[in-house]
Amino acid sequence: MIQENSATLNGLRVLEIGHFVAAPFCTRLLGDLGADVIKIEPHSGDPVRQWGEQVEGRSLWWSIHGRNKRSLALNLKAPQAQEIVLRLVADCDVVVENFRPGQLEKMGLSDEVLRGTRKDLIIAHVSGYGQTGPWRDRAAFGVIGEAVGGLRYLTNHPPGTFDLPPVRVGVSIGDSIAGLYAAFGIMAALWQRDRADGDGKSRSLDVALTESVFSMMEAMLPEYGKLGKIKQPTGGGIATAAPSNAYPTADGNFVLIAANSEPLFKRLAQLLGKPELIEDPRFNGNRARVENAAVLDQIISDWSSNFDARELQAMLDTSDIPASKTYTAADAAQDEQYRFRKMVREVQDPNLGEVLHTGIVPHIPESPGTIRWAGPDIGQHSAEILSDAGYSPTEIDTLKGQGVIR
């Protein structure tokens, strides 16, 4: 049996001075793989504790968002806060923060001050527009990153089809992408610092929400730069490949069908009972199919509408054509593949009882991460964390009495 302490990042200590989504998502990824994450949050708690569906005043999102973290409720404006943070930093490898640029410096916690305690500290800054530039001080959340990054314009049906505003992806994807980039950058910096021939040096990471989203926009920028072409929304389809879209079913669902290679399209045409489509000049080759995607989608929709989603899926699977119903939460919770790979797990939350959590990505069979505990109460580990940092019980009680910690 693999022991819990064999997780890939066991021994790595991370201090999170973050809130909302981006930085906490980054540290959750690190915590899932075994890192010891100390989360500093205000006495009122991270705002995400109040988001989403609640059970007896407790957020179900927080159960997963705060998992594998130790919570220290600390008033960062208190005179004693700087000393506490620096004593924690002395035993940390990484600090992750997502205040506005310059905010930590105003608190007396600049990069230089932090590294005065640990000179090889890796510091990840996550912000709306980055630590430099004319827009660095602008307020921003993930949705703003999605807008400036170009994603929000593209998450829509083709222009002219209706006049509603561009839709949101459905989750805080801009924040999460930035969190992923921060986690990736942290591991790259640690590799350069700690490998056998590493330089042992500190590094600062500058991750912007806007740039994180912008970097995902495929050929949008080179197509504009070279051709003056502005990439347009395509609804459920793909601008560069066809057929690939969501098609209606008889029971009111939609099934994604991606048959955009020549062998796949040939098999789909046979399944539709329309082998003549293979030689039809409108659909002969991917470029032609893209140009006539609307016509092709209608042909497939007319066919798919005759079957319910389960029946249609079975037919497509038999023909080895990539396809899937658009999953709801219920579909995901019951999916045998997710269950087999433990991507859907029952986790015991002391406050909520049994809660379904998504599993850990990436899956590392030789040293897997674990869900050690669900999102903690505000300040649940304050005394424990300060004790580890060398504070006596009397000092801890004094700090509580002064309202410095909770």
Automatic annotation (TrEMBL):
Gene3D superfamilies: Crotonobetainyl-coa:carnitine coa-transferase, domain 1, formyl-coa transferase, domain 3. The keyword Metal-binding does not apply. The keyword Transferase applies. It comes from the Bacteria. GO terms for molecular function: CoA-transferase activity. InterPro entries: CoA-transferase_III_domain, CoA-Trfase_fam_III, CoA-Trfase_III_dom3_sf, CoA-Trfase_III_dom_1_sf. Keywords: Transferase. This is CoA transferase.
